[in-house]
Amino acid sequence: MTSLRILVPIKRVIDYAVKPRVNKSQTAVETNGVKHSMNPFDELSIEEAVRLRERKLPVEDILVLSAGPAKAQDILRTAMAMGADRGIHVVVEPGKDAHGGEKGDLEPLGVAKLLQKVVEEEKRNLVILGKQSIDDDANQTGQMLAGLLGWPQATSASKLDIDGDNCTVIREVDGGVETLRAKLPMVITTDLRLNEPRYASLPNIMKAKKKPLVKKTMEDYGIDSERRLRTVKVVEPPPRKGGGKVEDVDGMIAKLKELGAI
Q1: How far apart are CA 40 and CA 9, in angstroms?
Q2: Which of 63, 91, 153, 181 can bridge 187 by disulfide, Cβ–Cβ 3.0-4.6 Å?
């Protein structure tokens, strides 16, 4: 049975319970002084990787990686407290790129190229990552990574089974569920019904401080982190207007005609 060498990419994002606000210059969402935490979908990915080991599968190594500012180390330590063996922190500090964009915000293609390099250098044969991050909601990185590697992929997994080199993934689709089967190596993205992430216990948090955490840069991997898309302006959505009541179907149709909807 093939040993599993798992890579779990994770991202530091604004906490899901915080309501994002646009910054004063209207160039991005305000991040200063705002609570951050691990992307919820990435928590599922770490949990699933650890559960594969707990199922007595031959998990040789669970490597977590995050690209971001210095504080990204916090979520890497959390991931190691949950059961990951070691971490890589690719330091990307905030700033402005040549187009005036936010330099610290990597685009999905740039992240996918970075992960491709890490997979090749670290000899990974399974990548488990969240289907999307809750800040940009792009839902692209996993698919792009699979394309760059030429590996099979299964997105939005709600159940994962591995038997030897064979992976079986169940995913929810419109109208039901879909079962996908493929052989390792493979890229899998996780959805909310996959599992319930554990809390990191205090003893494991203390142990995580001694686990290896290596610092790297995008340049170390030969990756250009400059954004190819430029954000022109970010504004709050307009407030919703109050609705109105109609007496019957004819009144509703008349109102829709009045609004130009039909």
Answers
A1: 12
A2: 153
